[in-house]
Amino acid sequence: MSTTIHPREPPPLGELATVIQKALESNFKSTAVRVVQCPDLRSAPFHLAAPGLSGNPCIADIGGQPNLFPSPNLNAKYSLLSLAKEMEMSPIGGSLLGAGAAPFQDLGHNAELAPNIAWTSESEHEIPDFDSPHSLKIVNNTRVIEVGPAGESSCQQASSTNCALMMNLYGSSGETGPVLKVVAKGRKGEINFTDAIRFGIRDFYGESNPVSLGGVLLLKSGAANFHIMPDFPETPFRDREQLRKEWLTYHIFDAPVVCLTVMHSADPENLGLRMEHTHCFDPNGNTKGGHYHYDVPGEEEVEYEAYLHPASMLYRIDRTS
């Protein structure tokens, strides 16, 4: 894999909390952003594979949408463990979460993926190695989200740690250090939750001072719109309009939904970053999930609760554009 490395200099968490609070106030009726000691995110309702988001925080953008359009690049097959190695993470212990494409090489078809894994050393007597998965004790809470022949949605536990085509990952040691707790309720503006955060950061720090964030958010109440990719089309896409309007399937799901997110405020180095990517799963069943778009008006006001942390290193892996 071809990889370039780009250090980040994130602002202090307290300063970032103030910036995000101001950004959300213009778009939500009620907001609260503060620095807290991260709770154990393995517990309900978040169900992460690791307790927290701290320790050597990093983000990777792998592959990209050109691996799907106009025809799928069937050579774009990845392993989350190999990507962790490429991100210079320690095999002694760590975690990855984010959004991307499911491993068609395992499933036999295309689908969405919500990667959510953690690892530690399997034995005190064997040196852990990403190239030797048997040397690692892996917690794999990754979900595969797909649609059936009749358009029915399914959210299931992944059977491997593989992925494909495009991935956006937040990595850390999985420690429960200080994080940003972000709460917002009752959207009054036109911008969704994740875009409100990253646009506010961009407007404050500018295009030349990028901030990259990752973490988990919970849709606590209300409903949101999601898309789920079906299997690959039999012929190449005519254009991106066909991909968006005729191929993708769209679904509205009620809360609760757990969402794993990676976002950037800017891309001054022109790395071809996907500026925001959020994939979600059903914490209490096997139907809800997919790629988050926006919450939808309804009888119950939307409410979000998120735990986020900035990255100090960015990795661009197998760039496609």
TrEMBL record:
<dbReference type="GO" id="GO:0008270">
    <property type="term" value="F:zinc ion binding"/>
</dbReference>
<dbReference type="GO" id="GO:0016788">
    <property type="term" value="F:hydrolase activity, acting on ester bonds"/>
</dbReference>
<dbReference type="GO" id="GO:0005634">
    <property type="term" value="C:nucleus"/>
</dbReference>
<keyword id="KW-0378">Hydrolase</keyword>
<feature type="domain" description="DUF1907">
    <location>
        <begin position="19"/>
        <end position="317"/>
    </location>
</feature>
<keyword id="KW-0862">Zinc</keyword>
<comment type="subunit">
    <text>Monomer.</text>
</comment>
<keyword id="KW-0479">Metal-binding</keyword>
<keyword id="KW-0539">Nucleus</keyword>
<dbReference type="Pfam" id="PF08925">
    <property type="entry name" value="DUF1907"/>
</dbReference>
<dbReference type="InterPro" id="IPR015021">
    <property type="entry name" value="C11orf54_DUF1907"/>
</dbReference>
<protein>
    <recommendedName>
        <fullName>DUF1907 domain-containing protein</fullName>
    </recommendedName>
</protein>
